[in-house]
Amino acid sequence: MRVRRVGRDANRRKVGKHFEIAVTDGGISWRRREGRIAAEARLDGVYVIRTSLDTASLGPEAAVDAYKGLAQVESARSSR
Predict the structure, then answer these.
(1) Which of 13, 34, 31 is nearest to 21 (CA)?
(2) Distance between CA 33 and CA 18 in Å, rounded?
(3) Which of 16, 24, 25, 38 could form a disulfide with 10 if both were Cys (CB 3.0 to 4.6 A apart)?
(4) How far apart, in Å, are the Cα atoms of 59 and each of 42, 48, 50, 51, 71?
(5) 22 has which bridge partners?
(6) pLDDT digits (tens, 9 = 90+) for 2-48
(7) What's this model's pTM, rounded to 2 decimal places?
(8) For residue range 36-61, what is the model confidence (pLDDT) as tens digits?
């Protein structure tokens, strides 16, 4: 019962994949899965940006910068 509840709570909070959790009669122990945490952090905030321009006109970094700039302008406009 206790094991199921711990697993359910970890998955509901979307952290279960980042920890190895062990439930015993003596208590609960856990260990961070550093590799999985780092892998997900590398993908955090990654978007696919499609443009009609070729890479000679607008490289990948410039496309991302343009998108982020547009997002900031839209955010500033909506907060008025």
Answers:
(1) 31
(2) 5
(3) 16
(4) 21, 14, 12, 10, 18
(5) 29
(6) 667 777 877 787 788 888 888 888 888 989 999 989 988 876 777 78
(7) 0.45
(8) 899 888 767 777 888 999 989 998 88
Two tokens at 18?
């980042």
Helix residue ranges, H only, 1-80 = 2-12, 34-43, 60-78
Taking residue 74's Cβ as centre, other Cβ atoms within 10 Å add up to 10
**Residue 19, Cβ density class (10 Å: 0-12 exposed, 13-18 middle, ≥19 buried):** middle
CB–CB of 21/28 below 8 Å?
Answer: yes
